[in-house]
Amino acid sequence: MFVPNKSEPLTAMDYKSEPMQFGPTVFTYSFHNYDPIICRRVANAPYDLTLFAVESCTSSMDLAWQLAQEGQLPDWASVLAARQTSGRGQFKRQWHSPPGNVYSSLRIPQPALAWRNLIALLSAESMRVVLTALGLTVTIKWPNDILVAGKKVCGILVEEKSGIVIAGVGLNLVSAPSFTGSERPQTLPAGCLQELGVILSPMDIWVRFIREMQSRLAETISKGGPEDFVMGLTAHLAFIGERIILDAYDGANRPAVLLGLDRNGGIRVQTDKGERVFYSGSIYPAA
């Protein structure tokens, strides 16, 4: 059972007075050692968000689920980790997690049924808006990646269990994994924001993302239905109208043309057998 530190919670002053340095990025909050998890709840800062700062964990998603199951992670509460030992992405792929990047998980209020399959895309659109505001040209690579200058800088993983929805976000701020030689030829390279001239702390950009996600979820759902959202999102999809390779994890790599999205977040493609919709898989630019 996870039990947070029982001493007095951190205040906003702790963000300014006790920074910790990890590589080139300053974490402007303190950590408290709690065995076996180094974790402390940060109270009333920044901007009254409930946040658990953790120096090291298997993954921010694992810790978020643990907190949620203990009743300690309300809606819009989050975990921000300095490093992960077993970070994971889509289909439990390993997520390289050295210090300095964003490894976070956010509990999102469960939306109405019509929107539940769109949480990953809502999260991706929120991150796109945040990064665009920094002067970057950003596209969304279906189903859960963010591209800047043709490189993957961010991945988003959404999990739902028993009415609880948690979005895990990995964002490369200061470093990105290199090719190992085992990737498929079409695999896109990874990039980081620092090489593009953007210098921000993990806390700073994480808070920006939460605020945008809060606003996006409320405004998007109140203004229209899923059809309106996916129609607006289509303009920001990577490879729209281009030839791609679709790996639907059924053993077949399908050449196709990316047409857009359906109302449930599936990808619409034109194949040699006509137009089809897929709800899982990965896409790559055609060679």
Short précis:
The protein is α+β, with helices and mostly antiparallel strands. It contains five helices and 15 strands.
Strands, helices and their partners?
Layout: H1 12-17, E1 20-22, E2 25-27, E3 38-42, E4 51-57, H2 60-69, E5 78-84, E6 102-108, H3 119-132, E7 138-141, E8 145-148, E9 151-161, E10 164-171, H4 202-223, H5 226-234, E11 243-247, E12 253-261, E13 267-271, E14 274-278, E15 282-285
Parallel strand pairs: 4-5
Antiparallel strand pairs: 1-2, 3-4, 5-6, 6-10, 7-8, 8-9, 9-10, 11-12, 11-15, 12-13, 13-14
Helix pairs in contact: 3-4
Task: Explain this structure.
With 287 residues, this protein is of the alpha+beta class. The protein folds into two domains: 12-234, BirA Bifunctional Protein, domain 2, CATH 3.30.930.10; 243-285, Roll (SH3 type barrels), CATH 2.30.30.100. Helix content is 21%, strand content 30%. It contains five helices and 15 strands. The strands form three sheets. Strands 3-4-5-6-10-9-8-7 form an eight-stranded mixed beta sheet, sandwiched between helices. A hairpin with an 8-residue loop joins strand 3 and strand 4 (51-57). Helix 3 (119-132) packs across helix 4 (202-223). The radius of gyration is 19 Å and the shape is globular. Residues 1-40 have low confidence and may be disordered.
Q: Notable features of this structure?
A:
single chain; 287 residues; alpha+beta; BirA Bifunctional Protein, domain 2; SH3 type barrels; 2 domains; eight-stranded mixed beta sheet; five-stranded antiparallel beta sheet; 5 helices; 21% helix; 30% strand; globular
